[in-house]
Every structure is written in structure tokens, then in C-alpha cells.
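User: I'm preparing a small set of examples for a lab meeting where we compare how different chains pack in three dimensions. I only have the primary sequence for this one, and I'd like the structure in C-alpha cell form so I can line it up with the others. Please keep the answer compact; I'll paste it straight into my notes.
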Amino acid sequence: MKVAAECRDIYRIFNPGEFEVRALDGVTLSLHEGEMVAVVGPSGSGKSTLLNMIGCLDTPTSGTILIDGEEVTGASPGQLAYVRSQKIGFIFQSFHLIPVFTAYENVEFALQIKGGYTPKERKELILPLLESLGIGQLADRRPGQMSGGQQQRVAIARALVKKPTLILADEPTANLDSKTSMSIIELMVRLNEEEGTTFVLSTHDPMLMEEIPRSIRIVDGKIVNDGTGA
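Assistant: Understood. Below is the C-alpha cell output for the 230-residue chain.
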């Protein structure tokens, strides 16, 4: 199975010296294409820091990171931005949609950043995707005109549309009620099973943990368990 992302002996140290904080302390792991993986652990354990490393939003103090077989450790900010635009999709707990854009325009923006698509090609990708996620009728609505669950579906569409190597979701159900959370969980599981979409999620949500086959538990910046079950 092809490796989508790999971390080798990753450290992320803040305030090096007497008062240093080891947000990540020698993390090594491989994430394979088609996997659905939960990163779990208490608040402050290093979950979001790990996702930021894999997502090229931060750089390690030491160690090596590979995305789709390409080493990104030591890459310039411009090179990291390119990797993010081409190979990584993001889903955040606060959605991070552009409020003045419609649902369609928010999803289209991801393709505009990636580049290489005509307006017609973008339309042919976006509209069927919105329909498949159950929000085709919301294409012309702005985020303020949608529920939290609808906004999160738009965020999922934005992550999916460029067909990334992997999708990183940081607490994707944290701001949703339990019923909406379950619908989002079921949607991501379906996308993983039917489309082979690779998901890596940080979560405290027990419902989400129960649905994900591989769980990586991190405590004080160290992986303490990596296997099935949460």
C-alpha cells in the first residue's frame, strides 16, 4: 500500500532550554493511502501540532517528513504552500469558509489556488460534488445562510475537490450537535470506503473514535498506542 505521509523521529520544541515544551517528542509514523486514522489524546497532547506538521503548516525542530514520497523537511515557505495546494485538503472545526463567498465559490477557490482548471472544468467538478454531499441546492448560499452541518459539508467539498493525497481534519465535529456530528462522521466514512479518500482526524469525539479503524493515541508529544480501536 502506498504511503501518503510519513514522519520520522519528529520533534517540535518550543522555548528550547530550561523551560522548553516538547509538543512532539520523537514521533514516527506512516499513513497509507486509503486509510482512515484518528489521532486521539488529551488536550495539549500534541494532536494539532502533529496535524500541522503533516499539513506543512509548521516545520519540525528536527526529524523528517515526507508527503506522497517527497521530503518536505527544510522546504521554503513557497514550496510548502505548493505542497498544501496540490496534495493536502484541510477540514477545520470552525469551518474557515470565506463569508462573502457562496458555497460554490468557497469550493472553487481551492481549485483556483491549485491552478490548471478552466471555469468550465471547475463547474464540472464542483456541482456534482456538492450534489453527492447533499448540498447541491446550497451552491448559491453564503456561509451565514447555512447551518453548521451544511457549512462543514462545504468545507469537506473544498477539501475533496482537488483530489488531494490526504485530508486532514482537526476536530471536525467539535462545533456540531450530536445528530449533525453523526451525519458528518457517516459522510466521511462513506467517502473513505467508496472513494478511497485518505482521512487523518484529530478528535475528542467518542462517536468519531468508534467509527475509525485505526487510532493513534498521543500523550505528552509521544505516540503511546497505534492500532485498531480508540
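A couple of notes for your slides: Residues 178-195 form the longest helix (18 residues). The beta strands are 3-14, 21-32, 36-40, 62-67, 70-71, 88-92, 166-170, 199-202, 214-219, 222-228.

User: Perfect, thanks.
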